[in-house]
Specification:
globular; single chain; mainly alpha; MetI-like
C-alpha cells in the first residue's frame, strides 16, 4: 500500500518540502553571505517590523470578526431555506469567486473614492456634509478584504449547518425551549466545527494578503506580504524577506494546528 503513495509523496516533496527548505536556508544568509541569525535579529531590532506584524494581525482579526458577523446569518439562512431559494442565494455567494480579486479590489477603489458611489450617496442623503476618506487607509483595506474573504467563511459553515438534524430544534421546542434558547444550546454548539474551520481559514488567508492592502491601503497600510516584497527590492540578498516569510509560515502553521485540534475536539464532543 505504501508503494502506491510514493509518487504522490514525491510530488509533495518537490512542490512543498524543497521550496520551504530553500526558503529556510535563505533566511540564515546575511548581507555578507555568511550564515547567522542576522535577518531574524533585524525583525526584533527595528520597530517598523514589529509595527508591521501588529498591523497585519490587527487587520486579520478585524476582517475575521466582520466575516463572522456577516457570514453566520447568511450561512444559517442558506441552511434553513428550501432547496430552490437556497440554491439562488448560494449562487450569489459564489459569484465573487468567478471574478478576479484584482478586479474586485479596483471596483472597491472606484466605489469608495471621494467621488465614488458611497460618498455621493452619503452626501445626497445629508448624512455627511463633505466626502470622507474611505480608501488609502485601514477602512478601505478592511472593506475590500471582507468582501473577498466572507465566502470562505460561509461555505464551511454552511456545510456544517446542513449536517445538523432539524429534528433537534423541533425537539427542543417541544420541551418548552424558546427559539433563542434552542439556537444557543443546540444549533450553535453543533455548528462550531464549521465555524472554527471557516474562521481559521479566513484569518490565515488574511495574514498573506498583498494586492488589496497595496491598492486600497495606498501605501499607508503595511502588511507582511508588502514588507516581503519591499525587502526583496531593497536588500541585496533575499535573507530578510525569507526570514519574514519563515516567521509568517510558523505563525500560520501554529494557527492551523490549533484549529485542527479544536475542530477535532468539537467533533468528538458532538
Amino acid at each position: 500500500m505504501f508503494r502506491l503513495t510514493v509518487p504522490a509523496l514525491a510530488i509533495v516533496a518537490i512542490l512543498m518540502v524543497v521550496p520551504i527548505g530553500w526558503l529556510l536556508s535563505m533566511s540564515f544568509i546575511g548581507a555578507d553571505g555568511g550564515l547567522g541569525f542576522e535577518n531574524y535579529a533585524l525583525f526584533f531590532s527595528e520597530p517598523a517590523y514589529v509595527q508591521m506584524f501588529v498591523n497585519t494581525f490587527a487587520i486579520a482579526f478585524a476582517v475575521t470578526a466582520l466575516c463572522l458577523i456577516l457570514g453566520y446569518p447568511v450561512a444559517y439562512v442558506l441552511a434553513i431555506l428550501p432547496p430552490r431559494w437556497s440554491g439562488l442565494l448560494m449562487l450569489a455567494v459564489l459569484v465573487p469567486f468567478w471574478t478576479s480579486g484584482l478586479v474586485r479590489t479596483f471596483s472597491w477603489l472606484i466605489i469608495l473614492q471621494r467621488n465614488g458611489l458611497v460618498n455621493k450617496a452619503l452626501v445626497a442623503t445629508g448624512l455627511i456634509e463633505r466626502p470622507i476618506p474611505l480608501v488609502h487607509n485601514m477602512t478601505g483595506t478592511i472593506i475590500g478584504m471582507v468582501h473577498i474573504m466572507v465566502p470562505f467563511l460561509i461555505l464551511p459553515l454552511y456545510a456544517s449547518m446542513k449536517a445538523i438534524d432539524g429534528n433537534l430544534m423541533r425537539a427542543a421546542a417541544s420541551v418548552g425551549s424558546t427559539p433563542t434558547h434552542a439556537f444557543l444550546r443546540v444549533f450553535l454548539p453543533l455548528s462550531m466545527p464549521g465555524l472554527v474551520a471557516g474562521t481559521i481559514m479566513v484569518f490565515v488567508m488574511c495574514l498573506g494578503f498583498y494586492i488589496t492592502p497595496a491598492l486600497l491601503g495606498g501605501g499607508k497600510v503595511k502588511m507582511i506580504a508588502q514588507r516581503i516584497e519591499e525587502s526583496i527590492s531593497l536588500y541585496p540578498t533575499w535573507g530578510p524577506a525569507a526570514a519574514l516569510a519563515v516567521l509568517l509560515l510558523v505563525v500560520t502553521a501554529i494557527c492551523l494546528a490549533a484549529s485542527m485540534l479544536l475542530v477535532r475536539r468539537l467533533s468528538t464532543d458532538r
